[in-house]
Amino acid sequence: MRRLVVDEHSAGQRLDNFLLRELKGVPKALVYRVIRSGEVRLNKGRAAADTRVASGDEVRVPPVRLPARPAPAAVPAREFPLLYEDDHLLAIDKPAGVAVHGGSGVAHGVIEQLRRARPGARFLELVHRLDKETSGVLLLAKRRSALTALQEQFRQRGPHKVYAALVFGDWPERLVRIDEPLLRTLDASGVRHVRVVTPEHAEARRSITLVRVVRRDAPAGTPVTLLDVTIRTGRTHQIRVHLAHAGHPVVGDPKYGDFARNRAFERATRFERMFLHARELSFDHPAGGARITLAAPLPADCATLLAAAPSPPPRP
Questions:
Q1: What is the reported pLDDT for 239?
Q2: Selected catalytic residue, list 131, 217, 253, 258
């Protein structure tokens, strides 16, 4: 049995994320399996994957045997378009197609590349996450105190987040609020999947998404609607699942989208990504409390698609 003690830099993390970082090279599916089986002990008791660990906590992990693996490829140093930086935090405009961190078959992500590009940085951690295929504002902390304060804001739903989402079809003007519970599950390989469930489900989590129509277009003759989407709750894949459940999946969504329409749209327009962009983030600065609003412009491929799209005829 391996004994791990949580230090102050790891305090506040979920148990699964703490173990994934400590057990380098251990497959994600195996980490979740030993947690579910109760073989992982937190302060001598069983704990769920989403339990938050505290400084001084003791985590006991069973022996894990791994097959020999080739040495991992070196992490490339990379900076990203900078939206804001001071002594406490930095914000970047994350490109689509780049994971925020390594794991689950991803060798490295934004955080590993930034740490390599900034070898003198004493502390650099993700405040929140974006899906790999989602672009836009991503916030990172340069101090432990800033990370703790900002993560508490996110838990309390203090930050205001606005996403630009292009969806298939003609979004109904009257549908401005989606209040549908979500359930997150993991398959045998540790891959997450989220679906809408009834409020009576024992593990349902209330999820609220607000939607505003920005414009309607028809690139290559395909009706689409550009939406501004804000979320009152921060569930995994919430926007993508809610919009798909409403019958209007996000263009290019490889997981919850309409796969046939995605392929046809890509062939007709040469647009090859998911159109979901975290365009604005407002939060209170962790030192001083001033309200900060950061904005990331639409990526060039998204802007080009909209610029070339003729608007459909007005409704009768």
A1: 97
A2: 131
